[in-house]
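chain below, 184 aa
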Amino acid sequence: MLIAFNKPYGVLCQFTDRSTPPRPTLAGFGLPPDVYAAGRLDHDSEGLLLLTDDGGLAHRLTDPRHKQPKTYWVQVEGEPGEEQLVALRRGVELNDGRTRPAHARRIDAPALWPRDPPVRFRKSVPDAWLELTLGEGRNRQVRRMTAAVGLPTLRLVRVAIGPHRLEGLAPGAWRALPPTGGRS
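prediction:
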């Protein structure tokens, strides 16, 4: 079984939380029993999360050797210049080494659901949207990459993993997908 889930902001990619007070988890969304997240999204990121009950499928979805590209829409603080986009495309140096090259382009603000809490608006500081596609998945990589080129991330939404897309899913909603890689 393969599930596409639109993870809301502030939700953990696990089914339990032992912290006090407990934080929202995947348990609150009526997902089928015995599925678990194939990969992660930070609690402050939103968008496509794949869940499965098949360990082999989870491995194929998450192992970098299988090259499942992940596409993100990223709202950044600042005005991206061509030199910053070129740096992202070439790979940037992070504290854990150089990233692989990314597909990076500026996009118009996408039609997304409102975030709760909303991204802080500052009249004196411009913001812009980028689309980044990565072939690797380090911890908080997109946020670290945009910060490394001087564009701090304000909002991060994953919209695709390989052939699977978020399209049509409201935050907190899910749908079953064909597990063999068909387009969703």
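Residues 82-90 form the longest helix (9 residues). The mean pLDDT is 91.
thats it, cya
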